[in-house]
Design a protein that fits this description.
- The complex is a heterodimer.
- Chain A has a domain at 128-305.
- Chain A is 29% helix and 20% strand.
- Chain A is built from 14 helices and 21 strands.
- In chain A, the strands form six sheets. Chain A has a six-stranded mixed beta sheet. Chain A has a five-stranded mixed beta sheet with strand order 1-21-3-19-17. A four-stranded antiparallel beta sheet of chain A has the order 2-20-4-5, with no helix packed on it.
- In chain A, α9 (340-358) packs across α11 and α12 packs across α13.
- Chain A is elongated and about 85 Å long.
- By secondary structure, chain B is α+β, with helices and mostly antiparallel strands.
- Chain B has one domain: Porin, CATH 2.40.160.
- Chain B is 20% helix and 56% strand.
- Chain B contains four helices and eleven strands, in the order ααβαββββββββββα.
- Chain B is elongated and about 65 Å long.
- The relative contact order of chain B is 0.19.
- Classes of the chains: A alpha+beta, B alpha+beta.
- Chains A and B meet through α1, α2, β1 and β2 of A and β1, α3, β3, β4 and β5 of B.
Chain lengths: 568, 256
């Protein structure tokens, strides 16, 4: 028994003195040098210590604000800070009761599209009474002779005097086995001076031509279904199989280098008895100045030029809006379209999925033949703006607030969910569901395999994925970059998404028009912006750079904000 | 014996609360129970000995913290294995013994609680996540001792009323990086309760006696590292320890 006493004490002492035993330091794993990532599971004031040993590491904190706006009612008194540095405080995004009078035409269109059907009074009662539906025979358009005065979406007067310049079809399409005819209109003031027949032919050739799976119409409708069809709503125009594209100077700004590239305005899907300024056509509008911009081709217009490629990508973008309105509001029975951030996210996902097929860089901003993350210091696509404004909110539900910067946020998120949760199938699941808000995204992510599919979890995981996008070995659910294409197949068609590394894009300041010198997302430091942090946003905080040893941080974390630690 | 009946009554209350309401034990009832035990233990029933005990072992923690770690790790494509965390305790006690096997004691000391989860596999580095906290405990105990030659053996039953006096620590350890946080739960969440038992073997050392024991405790608390939840967590620990006690009357009594 006397031997037992020292033995017992020796064992206890050994236990207590063994640091590794207390910490439980693991020996390694398949990727021992990979980024150390953990989620702090609590809020309030606390101390966070990081010990990187003798190896220099970067330490980042990501603060993710919940998309649940109501959770901020009590949090506005708390400040988010690290070591006394006050970071943006979460607040709810502004939600005006009435749409802002100062909204741009594009914002008004987006707002209208979101609620066009419910505003029209086309509720279930009307829908039920309207059977047998509104099918009608298509009229024949003749290029060069048919004219039309299109309503301007902002002035509500018909001041787009245009002439039909191209008719393609009828072509029976696979999406619903009925004929489609593409009619391209060009504003008379643009014709001959800016827009020429080869330009119109090139545009038509990209959008619809004979044969299956060889144009934007086929590629996108294979995922989402047709853009229009027989409906039982009496205030929606009949299904004729015609799809119209109008080439004109949108907003009359004569701008060949930016602005509104195109728009789909759902008012045109309605009868005049519902909306007096309807053009009564399944149509979208493309900017003529940008399409005709040939500065990147030494003065000779070519379909391979920068702006024509942007326009081709815009065809997919606006066509998604067109399909989205029909498939969600009418077919799925949602009654309205999705929140603006979801609709715009889907439009850019469509561009992304079709980029290599269309032969354009798309919103990724990388040559369509390259499946890897592309060259360093990239300034193309949507990501440079995201890198500059990484702290902006994702779920912008107010159309009047959705601007240029928000497109980049929506794309960055959409590119991530598509690459992790089903690719083309994810897009289909969002668009073709009856959900109009974040639930559409959550359901689609869950269907794509996300175990934590609530938007808050997705937003947090998205941020970590952005930070890990320079690695090709991130876990499932955190993937932007595989070093190659990521493919998905819907209805027999395969779609490819290229890799993305945010650290290869220079940030772009949209106000000064200048690019930053350091690629990668915006990391807040002591000189970072201190404005409010909106719901559904991430703030990247660079806690320490190239740091070796132990460091402590005093963190104040409001309720509704979660903190993720990334050491790499 | 009447007082023992009172104990039994409170036990019935506790069981009833647990079974019927499906919620944590009522605090008021438990406090009264512990108070009664303390009074019992402090009653002048015979010889008094004073002891100090030290124990070490492993702890298990089951609550929102575990769920949070598990959810995150699985989302990170890693498999999760609940594991045991090193824990320990240090107590001072006063023990009242009378002729016969029964003893009653009351102890005051610090207990170390903890839990651990190991995340491995996938393409991320392995991670060991631990949670721990130190509480100040008041522990009435009732025990039985039986002679075994010069030594004695026996068993103890105890209940503990604790107060978390340290921050709640969470530690994530990767192969080359360690991240830890010290979190202060809200005041109303600091208290906890537990019950435990020990098997004891003791022998005299002059005026002193040395006991070695193996023990186990199961507790319920409402402090946890996860925000926004108030669900109770279950704490467990098991270990071995030693107790050194002094009794001025031991020479006269000795172990039989």
């Amino acid at each position: 028994m006397k031997r037992l006493i020292p033995l017992t004490l020796a064992v206890i002492t050994a236990f207590l003195s063994s640091c590794s035993f207390f910490l439980g330091t693991p020996s390694g794993g398949a990727n021992a040098d990979g980024p150390a990532v953990t989620r702090v599971p609590y809020s309030g004031n606390f101390t966070y210590d990081v010990d990187t040993g003798s190896t220099a590491r970067d330490v980042f904190f990501v603060f993710s604000a919940s998309a649940d706006k109501t959770s901020y009612e009590q949090a506005t008194v708390a400040s988010l800070s690290v070591d006394g540095l006050r970071l943006p405080v979460p607040t709810a995004p502004k939600m005006p009761k009435e749409f802002g009078a100062n909204a741009t035409a594009a914002q008004k269109i987006a707002d209208f599209n979101r609620t066009a059907l419910s505003k029209s009074g086309a509720g279930l009662g009307i829908r039920a009474l309207a059977f047998p539906g509104n099918v009608t025979s298509p009229r024949a358009y003749i290029a060069g002779s048919d004219t039309n005065d299109f309503y301007h979406p902002d002035t509500y007067i018909p001041n787009y005097d245009a002439t039909c310049r191209k008719v393609v079809g009828p072509i029976t399409v696979a999406s619903d086995s009925t004929p489609r005819t593409l009619i391209i209109w060009v504003s008379n003031v643009e014709w001959g001076t800016r827009i020429t027949q080869p330009m119109v032919d090139a545009l038509a050739d990209r959008f619809l031509k004979t044969g299956d799976d060889n144009d934007i119409y086929d590629w996108l409708t294979k995922i989402l279904g047709p853009e229009w069809g027989t409906t039982s709503y009496t205030n929606l125009i009949p299904h004729t199989g015609d799809v119209h594209i109008l080439l004109t100077d949108i907003e009359g700004d004569a701008s060949p280098n930016g602005g509104v590239v195109g728009f789909f305005y759902a008012v045109n899907n309605f009868t005049p008895g519902t909306y007096s300024d309807t053009n009564q056509k399944i149509m979208f509008v493309i900017d003529s100045y940008m399409y005709a911009n040939d500065t990147s081709n030494a003065g000779s217009w070519s379909a391979d030029g920068f702006w024509p490629k942007e326009i081709f990508s815009t065809l997919a973008h606006e066509f998604q809006h067109m399909i989205h309105f029909y498939q969600k509001a009418v077919v799925a029975g949602a009654g309205d379209s999705a929140d603006v951030w979801i609709d715009e996210m889907c439009a850019q996902m469509a561009e992304d999925l079709l980029a290599d097929k269309m032969g354009v860089p798309g919103p990724r901003g990388v040559d369509y033949t390259i499946g890897s993350s592309g060259p360093a210091n990239n300034t193309e696509g949507r990501i440079p703006i995201y890198n500059q404004y990484s702290y902006l909110p994702l779920a912008v539900t107010d159309s009047g607030s959705f601007g240029l910067l928000d497109y980049s946020t929506a794309y960055a998120f959409g590119a991530w969910v598509a690459r992790n949760y089903g690719g083309a199938a994810f897009l289909k699941n969002v668009v073709c569901s009856a959900y109009m808000d974040k639930e559409a995204v959550e359901k689609a992510a869950a269907a794509g395999g996300a175990t934590l599919a609530d938007l808050d979890s997705l937003i947090q995981r998205w941020a970590v994925s952005v930070m890990g996008s320079d690695r090709a070995d991130m876990p499932v659910g955190y993937v932007y970059n595989t070093g190659d294409w990521k493919t998905s197949t819907v209805n027999g068609s395969t779609y490819k998404l290229g890799s993305i590394d945010f650290h290869k894009y220079l940030p772009y300041d949209a106000y000064s028009g200048t690019y930053g010198q350091t690629p990668g997302p915006m990391y807040l430091t002591s000189s970072g912006p201190t404005s409010n942090l909106s719901a559904s946003s991430n703030v990247y905080y660079a806690a320490a750079r190239s740091f070796a040893g132990k460091k402590s941080f005093e963190v104040s974390l409001p309720v509704g904000v979660t903190m993720t630690v990334v050491v790499r | 014996m009447n007082e023992v009946s009172v104990e039994a009554l409170y036990c019935d209350d506790i069981i009833k609360n647990i079974k019927i309401e499906g919620r944590p034990m009522k605090r008021v009832g438990l406090v009264r129970f512990v108070f009664a035990m303390t009074l019992l233990a402090a009653a002048p029933l015979g010889a008094v000995e004073f002891g100090v005990s030290l124990s070490g072992g492993v702890g298990f923690w089951n609550g929102e913290w575990n769920k949070s770690v598990q959810t995150f790790s699985e989302d990170f494509s890693q498999s999760v294995t609940p594991s045991l965390c090193p824990v320990g305790s240090l107590f001072l006690d006063a023990t009242f013994r009378q002729k016969g096997p029964l003893l009653l004691s009351v102890a005051l000391g610090a207990g170390f609680w903890g839990g651990r989860v190991i995340s491995s596999g996938g393409t991320a580095p392995d991670r060991v996540s631990s949670v721990a906290g130190i509480g100040l405990d008041l522990v009435p105990t009732v025990g039985l001792r039986f002679p075994a030659g010069k030594a004695e053996f026996g068993a103890d039953l105890r209940v503990g009323l604790g107060l978390l006096v340290s921050p709640l620590w969470t530690i994530d350890a990767w192969p080359t990086v360690t991240g830890s946080a010290a979190y202060q739960p809200q005041l109303v969440d600091l208290g906890y309760f537990y019950a435990g038992s020990s098997l004891v073997y003791g022998f005299p050392l002059g005026d002193y006696a040395l006991n070695v024991f193996i023990s186990g405790d199961v507790g319920i608390a409402s402090f946890d590292a996860s925000s926004g939840t108030k669900d109770p967590i279950m704490l467990m620990r098991a270990g071995i320890g030693a107790r050194l006690s002094y009794d001025s009357s031991r020479k006269k009594r000795a172990y039989r």
